[in-house]
């Protein structure tokens, strides 16, 4: 699932995953924690299925991969954040998922000095998942999200997890740690703008770990861009203006 975070990178990455795997919709979240929304099918491949309605939070499934994906399309209402986190944790526990992955992003301009070097991609593993996958991600050369000083240039004794622009990422990760839920956070440092390249980087990074699609010997995985991305930045400048 994605976090509603800076640049909507997690949501764009989930779009690529659902579209490429051609995952059917199997359910939806009916909750007052999200801003209501209804629209056409974002993954339409023909005019016949374009008129299918989509809502603010829907679940897609791939039976062969034993994969369920929750796509969130609207922001969480400010006063309902805690309720939404409880809803997600309850759903994860009742569904008995082997592991859960949260795709997220964080403001690039608010990085600590140590975070400026190397790849902009980071990860976090809950203690229960660390036991199972810690060695694997270490072999992949992944970088864990650094803890930074709570009082910079004053005292380095207290370190904290800081994910600016990450929405519910930190709080939901903390909830999963407390509830002993196997949870991984995969995130990227980015800025607002054209975040399509960030989405490709994030989903390719995830695929290196989970092997959702087979990677060719040369080049990278050919992800299929959904039809809803055609007007991602509007329909262009009307020629009648000139």
Automatic annotation (TrEMBL):
This is Proteasome assembly chaperone 2. It is found in: Nucleus. One of its GO terms (cellular component) is cytosol. The keyword Cytoplasm does not apply. The lineage of its organism: Eukaryota, Metazoa, Chordata, Craniata, Vertebrata. Gene3D superfamilies: PAC-like subunit. Forms a heterodimer with PSMG1. The PSMG1-PSMG2 heterodimer interacts directly with the PSMA5 and PSMA7 proteasome alpha subunits. It comes from the Eukaryota. Pfam families: PAC2. Belongs to the PSMG2 family.
């Amino acid at each position: 699932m994605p976090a509603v975070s800076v640049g909507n990178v997690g949501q764009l990455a989930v779009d690529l995953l659902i579209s490429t795997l051609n995952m059917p919709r199997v359910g939806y979240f009916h909750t007052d924690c999200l801003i209501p929304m209804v629209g056409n099918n974002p993954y339409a491949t023909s005019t016949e299925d374009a008129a299918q309605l989509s809502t603010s939070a829907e679940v897609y499934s791939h039976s062969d991969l034993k994969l369920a994906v929750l796509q969130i399309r609207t922001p969480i209402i400010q006063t309902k954040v805690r309720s939404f986190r409880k809803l997600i944790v309850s759903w994860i526990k009742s569904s008995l998922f082997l592991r859960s992955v949260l795709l997220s992003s964080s403001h690039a301009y608010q990085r600590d000095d140590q975070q400026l070097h190397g790849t902009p991609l980071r990860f976090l593993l809950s203690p229960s998942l660390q036991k199972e996958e810690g060695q694997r991600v270490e072999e992949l050369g992944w970088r864990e999200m650094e803890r930074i000083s709570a009082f910079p240039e004053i005292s380095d004794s207290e370190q904290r997890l800081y994910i600016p622009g990450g929405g519910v990422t930190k709080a939901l990760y903390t909830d999963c740690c407390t509830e002993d839920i196997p949870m991984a956070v995969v995130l990227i440092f980015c800025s607002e703008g054209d975040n399509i390249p960030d989405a490709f980087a994030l989903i390719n990074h995830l695929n290196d770990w989970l092997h959702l699609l087979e990677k060719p010997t040369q080049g990278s995985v050919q992800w299929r861009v959904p039809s809803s991305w055609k007007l991602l930045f509007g329909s262009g400048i009307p020629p009648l203006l000139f």
